Amino acid sequence: MKAWIDTHVPDFLHRKWVWIVGLLIVWFALGRIFKGVHTLDIGNSEDTPTTEVLGQFAANIRAARAENPIFVYIFNPFRQGIESFVEVIRAVISDPAPGALIPVIGWFGILAIIGFLVFATSNWRTSLLSMVLIFGCGVLGMWTYSMDTLALTLGAVVLSLAIALPIGIWAGLNDRVMRAVRPVLDLAQILPTLVYLAPLALVFLIGIAASTIATMIYSIPIGIRITAHAIRSLQNGPIEAAESMGSTRWQKLTKVQLPMAKRTIILGVNQTTLAALSFVVIAALIGAPGLGEPVLQALSIRNIGDGVTAGLAVVFLAIMLDRSTTAAVARSNQIPLTGKPLLIRRLSLGAAAIATIVAVMMSRQQLWAAIFPETLNFREPIGDWFDAITEWFTTTFYFLTTSFNEVFTLNILNPIEYLLADAPWYLTIIMISVIAAIIGGRAVAVLSAVLLLLIVWIGLWNDTMITLTQVLIATTIVMVIGVVLGVAAGRNEKFERVLKPFLDAGQTLPAFVYLVPVLALFGPTRFAAIVCGVFYAAPVVVRVVADGVRGVPKEMVEAAISSGSSTTQVVTKVQLPASKKSLLLGANQGLIFVLAVVVIGGLVGAGGLGYLVLQGASKPELQGKGLAAGLAIVLLGIVMDRIAHASARRS
Amino acid sequence: MRRNLTKRMAVLPLLAAAGLVLAGCGDSVNDAATETATEEAAVATEEEAATEEAAEVAACGDWAIAMHGWVGYTASAQVVAEVAQDALGCTIEQTQLEEAGVSYDAMEAGSIDVIVEDWGGGRWQEWVDRGAIQEVGTNGNVGLIGMYVPQWMADEYPDITDGTKLNDYADLFQTPETGDKGAWYEGPPGYTTIGEKIIDAYGLNYQVVSTGSEAALIELFTQAADNKTAALGYFYEPQNFLAQVDLARVNFPANDWTDPAEASGLTDYPESPLMKLATTELVESGSPFATLVANFNWTNDDQNMVAADIEGGMTPQEAAQKWIAANKDTVNSWLAGTGASIS
């Protein structure tokens, strides 16, 4: 048979893409014929048997709350423990005791302590930058909000690391543990926060404890993943040497593996911190103090300027935390100082320590150092300035953006949505599975079919396909932007330095800040949702790709140049293929980040699963449907991730 | 390792010193603040003792008001909070929070005591049945949901405000989003709606677009009015936006339902008085704050006035104080029975 195929089937049919294009044509043709048949479209407020069961389940938990021993003896003490831990930090930096004017330390003291800590762990330049950024939060008129956010973030990070580091190390040492935790990590990272926010508030009440726990659910997986990765990717040489010298397992871990993995583990701390910080606004939805408050307030009165001002304070905090942890990594890799430089360093540390103590004392006694001076508060002018810019931008580009939106919707968005959502559900499942089989193999095809059938069974098929359309398009755009900018940044350090603040801003600026401008430019449309997703996910991909391109050995690039390759050839033939691993990681992260903002899309007209999650959060009678929609997002994420993974392994 | 140790040693004395500083120096701006606060309290007590009336005001206590994310709500809640603090001496916490489920749960758990405006005709019943929440009357605002078009469309096509004739105009509302059907923009996910039922009941050639937020609706209508584009969307009063941009309501036959689940889709939305909710704990506490919450009542115009000031750039506190100063009689009528009043 095989021989027959080899001789009789024309050569081009051996290529995968030919089959895929053929299938798409068939799919499209069948989709046209059966348009609107068996699409399983249901109304927004219509329940299905599965969602009803889920809703009943939530209602039962609620009714049992008061007497249930699990609440009385486990959840409540746990909640109180977390709350008092965070409250201690808040009492020191943000929340004055009743009747008091300032917390234990005034603003000037906090500035000095941050400067000193960063100086002690990295260098004076980063220390100065950190102080400028923290001072900037005050200039934006957001001092107390910023300190609340800092306190919550620190609390959540410390608690997250206390859990993530041990589990991460264990998972790094033991394959079986890794296999056991991986699905849980997937679930926790893809499940949209808004899905578990209401249930969390149900169990842990509103406020600090619930928001800290919500933050931990999101940031712990990242910590575990990177720690395990750090242990796993160590070279074997030193470990074997330690073994041959008869070290115990404990000695091997503490003397060899952990010190060697330290650099990557600190990267994990860095990522855990940024993840925790990105939670600021979500936390405010369940009554947590911090920068989320002014952001939500600004949204409810459509004061764009004030929202951006608050969002900018989030970005400042993020850059400060990111740069200081990164600089600490860099320092831990340097050769230790000796002789005169060491003496200078010790002396300057001592001087900085004394200056810090003086500053802390002053911040408790002098009013100007205790409360951030009103004369330095530029919240209103900055807000007005942003208002004016946004107004100018949206009115100037409105016609450009709406017409682009129209062309894009008619020629790309709608055709793909017809294919996925308007065709009979069984046709779509068959086609997706066959494509998965061609590019990823039989196993992943079966998995996709089963998970997609599960979505049909839940009853949210049509909404899932509407969301899938947008996620596919957004991820594709993100990858294109990510590769173009990532390659440019990886090849040119100057360009990367210019790009970096924008990447920081894109990744940490809360989406609630730019909802109104996006709406003004694109109206409540699916394209507006895609724009939000791209804005949020592209920076990560740019970073990962840039990192990969930079990691390509210089000799390879130089060899290509000396053999007369053009720049394009160097990029396409050497740098991109050599950084394939980073491209894959980028695609995976891009997808996860796009999925993470599906719910935000629901706020700007995306419909689909994001809207259902929001609806479940604010309509008690449809809570079950919201939970089911969250589940469908996770299933969708797994299907896409596994197909991409399998196809990468094959090629 | 050694370098690490030296680093740690550098931090330790600092921490110790910082601890000493904080513990040792009792002289801080906070002490001054406490002194002033005590003096003020003393003055206040004297004043209270001086007026017989004030002496009858019972202690108010600490209470929390839920702050929901729309400007009309902010207006109502801020006015209640200001009156409670100034006239009754209550300690009021205002907690930003999602509406409905999350808020009701918070009330059941005792973290929130009052919701000053709830549109969700009875969605809180489950919590009332368990004895956690009580309805404490309407707040005087009357909510009216409906479908709206920009005024220029009503001028150009007089018929368009007759909902039953919407099919004649479906092609005006076509968008790339909805293909050959008209776009029917719905509101935020938490809001009561029977849009899908109306489309079904009349066989309207329209497709629902879920805008997802109040901000989205307002952008939609602002642009429809500014650029003279077509838009058919969900809106509601009281909402200060209706005073800024001219919208015309699309009418359906007179309403005959109260529970949206029972609506046929053939008739329009009802006028619904907006409800105040309080925890059983507050209602039974005997605190004058409970009386204030029960008495609080104002008109849609009142709310819109405060909302307009907030949107115009005042802080919610300033806007609320401005309204209170201009409407002392109304405020005093809310204070009836507490023994307190403002002048």
Topology:
The complex is a heterodimer of chains A (651) and B (343).
Chain A: H1 2-8, H2 16-33, H3 49-64, H4 69-93, H5 107-121, H6 124-139, H7 143-173, H8 175-190, H9 193-204, H10 208-232, H11 236-244, H12 249-277, H13 280-284, H14 292-300, H15 304-332, H16 339-365, H17 367-370, H18 379-422, H19 425-440, H20 442-458, H21 461-491, H22 493-508, H23 511-522, H24 526-550, H25 554-562, H26 567-578, H27 580-596, H28 598-602, H29 608-618, H30 623-650
Helix pairs in contact in A: 2-19, 3-30, 4-7, 4-10, 5-6, 5-16, 6-15, 7-8, 7-10, 7-12, 8-10, 9-10, 9-29, 10-12, 11-12, 12-15, 14-15, 14-23, 15-18, 15-22, 15-23, 18-21, 18-23, 19-20, 20-30, 21-22, 21-24, 21-27, 22-24, 23-24, 24-27, 25-26, 27-30, 29-30
Chain B: H1 2-24, H2 29-50, H3 52-55, E1 62-67, H4 71-88, E2 91-96, H5 101-109, E3 114-118, H6 125-129, E4 133-150, H7 151-156, E5 182-186, H8 195-202, E6 206-210, H9 214-226, E7 233-237, H10 241-244, E8 247-250, E9 271-279, H11 280-283, H12 288-295, H13 300-311, H14 316-326, H15 328-335
Parallel strand pairs in B: 1-2, 5-6
Antiparallel strand pairs in B: 3-9, 4-7, 4-8, 4-9
Explained architecture:
The complex is a heterodimer of chains A (651) and B (343). Chain A is built from 30 helices and no strands. With 651 residues, chain A is mostly helical. Chain B has 343 residues and is of the alpha/beta class. Chain B folds into two domains: 58-141 and 273-335, Periplasmic binding protein-like II (D-Maltodextrin-Binding Protein, domain 2, 3-Layer(aba) Sandwich); 143-271, Glycine betaine-binding periplasmic protein, domain 2 (D-Maltodextrin-Binding Protein, domain 2), CATH 3.40.190. In chain B, helix 4 packs across helix 13 (300-311), helix 4 (71-88) packs across helix 14 and helix 13 (300-311) packs across helix 14. Chain B is elongated and about 70 Å long. Classes of the chains: A mainly alpha (651), B alpha/beta (343). Chains A and B meet through helix 3, helix 5, helix 9, helix 14 and helix 16 of A and helix 1, helix 2, helix 5, strand 6 and helix 9 of B.
